[in-house]
Amino acid sequence: MQISYHGHSIVKIVTGGKTILIDPFINGNKLTDLKAEEEKPDVILLTHGHNDHVGDTVAIAKACDALVVAPNELANYLALDGVKTHGMNIGGSWEFDFGTVKFTKAFHSSSYTTENNEFIYTGMPAGILFTAEGKTIYHAGDTSLFGDMELIGKRHPIDVAFLPIGDNFTMGPEDAAYAVELLQPKLAVPIHFNTFPPIEQDPEDFKKLVTENEVKIMAVGDVIEL
Ligand code: NI
Ligand code: MN
Known about the structure:
This protein is an alpha/beta fold. It has helices at residues 51-54, 57-64, 72-79, 149-155, 173-183, 203-209; strands at residues 2-5, 11-15, 18-22, 43-45, 67-71, 85-88, 93-96, 99-105, 111-113, 119-121, 126-132, 135-139, 160-164, 187-191, 214-215, 223-225. The site of manganese (II) ion has 6 residues, from α1.
């Protein structure tokens, strides 16, 4: 399995000949190395409806017929655009041909803002547990710190946890470091920082605060082989 980071909350996983893209916010993301028109994923996983996570989902999914797996209301909304979707909700898991997806809770909000500045309700925000090849990846989405992270880590031993550290909209470095203690992943990777002024952070601050677990600060384009 190959896992790569592409700025903000974008994570790409390649497993069993399939490519999975999480939260493909490409246009408007000053940090990313991806180009929306070059991405041909088999699957797009979305944590919630905010525009900095849905990003280029519709254009990419329409261009390459990718399946979009998202919280149910968000999936239903995107399906109106003719996108192939699979809606899920918190606590539910589903075994796909590319791996198993389970939606976990995230304390955040979730709506999509259209070009006409309409606010669309897109259901509950979520985190995602993705399991394939016997490895489990946790993408926390946007969230505060919450005690049930301990439960998530106990129920599903985590190989790699992608955790927001930007503060203001999500956990900051200190809370994210505490989240690592609760989740006990083999490896923690900071995400969702430095994209916009309110979330500017030095990821080294997060790394210094994590004393018991391994942290990898992934540069944009870095790849982990599991
Ligand atoms: Ni958000
Ligand atoms: Mn966000």
